Amino acid sequence: MINKKEKDWFKDRGYPHFSNKTPVSVRDKVEHYVSNPKKIAKHSFLPLIFKEIKQRRYKESEFGGELKQSHKKIKKGVIISNTKIREILYATHIDAHVYSYYTQKIITPKYESYLNKNKLLSDAITAYRRIETEDKVKFKNNVHFAKDVFDEIKKRQNCVALVLDIENFFPTLNHKKLKLAWAKILGNKTLPKDHYNIFKAATRFSYVKLDDLKTKNNHFDEKQLAINKKNGKHTFFDNIKELIDSDIIIHKNQKKNSDKKLIGIPQGLPISALLANMYMLAFDEIVINELSVKHDVYYRRYSDDIVVLCKENQIDFVEKFIIDEVAKIDLIISEEKTEMTLFKTQNNRLQSFKIRKDKSIQENVPLNYLGFEFYGYQTLIKSKNLAQFYREMKQTVKRKHKRVEHIKEEKLLDEAPLFKRKLYRLYSFKGVKSRDLPAKRTDFVNGVAKTKYFDRKFRGNYLRYAYRASDDLNAPEIKRQLRNHWKILQKTIKKYEFSNVDKT
């Protein structure tokens, strides 16, 4: 029986890979394997699959000494795109279970035990952890972590929020330092054989690019995938030898530091987040001991996002201290992402002021933190996140219109309706409540298709998140931000020729 307060290490992942899926029916068999240190010490990890997630960004950038909103920026004298590219690498099903089991059942309890010896330290590290809310009803999320920072600003009144971001966090972690941090959490000088094998897999990893698997005119070989699936294998190849014998390139981690030593871990493994937190432990401790304890500096770290609250006359000292200490663990603070926001009481209310690089200040520019904009007197959802919500809404309607036009052409129809239910569920107040939705999954057993019908849990849409954030942050202004969402959705639908949409 799994305790609800524990995160289950076993997950039935649906994606195709180089080894077969592991449904819930084989859980006991998998657990018997992954809980055996001798087997894990000799386990052969298969290549990861690599994919890129691109996010186009419209940001304030400096051109010729003038700040402009643009999709591009100047870096080292060269104009480059502002597009954020996240490199995701994901493991085969059995490898993912190994990472997940060791993360949840073995390493995390020791890491949490270490943090719990120092409340200041434990409170400071917020990402990738299961931290209970004060009422013990649920676990904290980014809304609660943002509220903690905003409440502290309100408490201090006159202070500066310094937000810093570590550049290329996961891809630049030093392997030697990671290994030492890992051993320290385990209470050892060196890693045991099973842990060392996992360490090697997470640092000296190999991978195949997802696009390289699209071998049929830039598409997956659906026919071969169907044959494999019919044979009970949800895989790209019948066996790993087929991959090795194919023309597909198996890449190896080639990222190196100035000493030509391999660096970086994959972002996307079940163990990646924990490894990143362990890597930062020495830095977290020195910030708490030297800044929080000695100088009353408030410190929080959410993955590679660092926020500190200090007095106005402490800014230079605190910023230099953090930059220097981050450098000691072979990481770099992104200068262009560093933000300073001054908070002070003006006209009987707390207000925010952006501190520019030349030390001039700009009134009513908010602190951006974990998806929210904090002005002192009000809290809003980050405008870019809201713009993305509406952009996705409009793109979805456009895609549905293309689909309808294709059906009209294919079936020789004059009219075709828009099915609005799913659209409303995703992009309106009608999708705020969680509910069970009918779903089905077809698997092949001994070459025979067997369809299983079940209910899929729909946990609500983005508006549900926003409304809850509004309540948790005591910020009714967030709900006012979204009051026109229904009008925008209806206006978008009316742009296209759907037979069941009233244009009036």
UniProtKB/TrEMBL annotation:
A molecular function (GO) term: RNA-directed DNA polymerase activity
Q: Matching InterPro entries, A to Z?
A: DNA/RNA_pol_sf, RT_dom
* Pfam families for the chain: RVT_1 (PF00078)
Give the PROSITE patterns listed for this entry. RT_POL
User: What are the Reverse transcriptase domain coordinates in residue numbering?
Assistant: 51-374
Q: Which residues form the signal peptide?
A: none
Instruction: Tell me which UniProt keywords the record has, alphabetically.
Output: Nucleotidyltransferase, RNA-directed DNA polymerase, Transferase
Q: Which SUPFAM superfamilies match?
A: DNA/RNA polymerases
**Protein name (database record):** Reverse transcriptase domain-containing protein
Q: Which organism is it from?
A: Polaribacter sejongensis
- Tell me the organism's taxonomic lineage: Bacteria, Pseudomonadati, Bacteroidota, Flavobacteriia, Flavobacteriales
